[in-house]
Write a structure and sequence with these properties.
Helicase, Ruva Protein, domain 3; zinc ion binding; two-stranded antiparallel sheet; alpha/beta; 7 strands; Recombination protein RecR; TOPRIM_RecR; Rcmb_RecR; Dna Topoisomerase Vi A Subunit, Chain: A, domain 2; DNA binding; 2 domains
Length: about 200
């Protein structure tokens, strides 16, 4: 039946999203079928608008619907601090702690030779340039996942910035279990790890 083909096609689209299995995707599709036409139209238009208008912040690579994100353009943020994170979800996790009021820099991942990801595949060059061009920056805080890849990325950036004598390079305290990503860490633990951050040490 053609209707079932349409159903399967819609289910496949939802199931292609991270963390969504076919059963959950089917629930989403069946729920949409029960909605009023205007609700479905509003839903689809919001996704289209999101894709069309959301872009990367030209400063930190966070998402924004303008040229510069709300965090970078906020005059109340501490412009002497830049927290380096892997992805946008990490920003949301840190913001939820209410323990950090500085700026961010999104790398877009971590160095992972096994996955074919090197320094040039990430937003590392723009971070280095940002530090060189902005005299307000006094501290770089690594808030990377407690993995070999996260540590490797931190080491690489540290070496690139080691000649900046007045720049403090720190890392969040080791309250996060080895192998864990920030998004899976509870707000209290993450907040404390930021407040109790320590000076970055090449020897770990």
């Amino acid at each position: 039946m053609n209707s079932l083909k349409l159903l399967d096609k819609a289910v496949e689209q939802f199931a292609s999203l991270p963390g969504i299995g076919r059963k959950t995707a089917l629930k989403f599709v069946l729920n949409l079928l029960k909605r009023e036409d205007e609700e479905v139209k509003a839903f689809t238009e919001s996704i289209i608008d999101l894709k069309k208008n959301i872009r990367e912040c030209t400063v930190c690579h966070n998402i924004t619907d303008g040229e510069i994100c709300d965090i970078c353009s906020n005059p109340k943020r501490d412009r002497t601090l830049v927290c380096v994170v892997e992805n946008i979800k990490d920003i949301l996790s840190i913001e939820a702690t209410s323990q950090y009021n500085g700026l961010y820099h999104v790398l877009g991942g971590v160095i992972s030779p096994m996955d074919g990801i090197g320094p040039t595949d990430l937003h590392i060059a723009s971070l280095i340039k940002r530090v060189e061009d902005d005299n307000n920056i006094r501290e770089i805080i690594f808030a990377l996942s407690a993995t070999i890849e996260g540590d490797t990325t931190g080491y690489y950036i540290y070496k690139r910035l080691a000649n900046k004598e007045k720049l403090v390079i720190s890392t969040i305290a080791k309250g996060i279990s080895i192998g864990n990503n920030l998004e899976y860490t509870d707000e209290l633990t993450l907040g404390r790890s930021i407040v109790n951050r320590v000076k970055f040490n090449l020897n770990g």
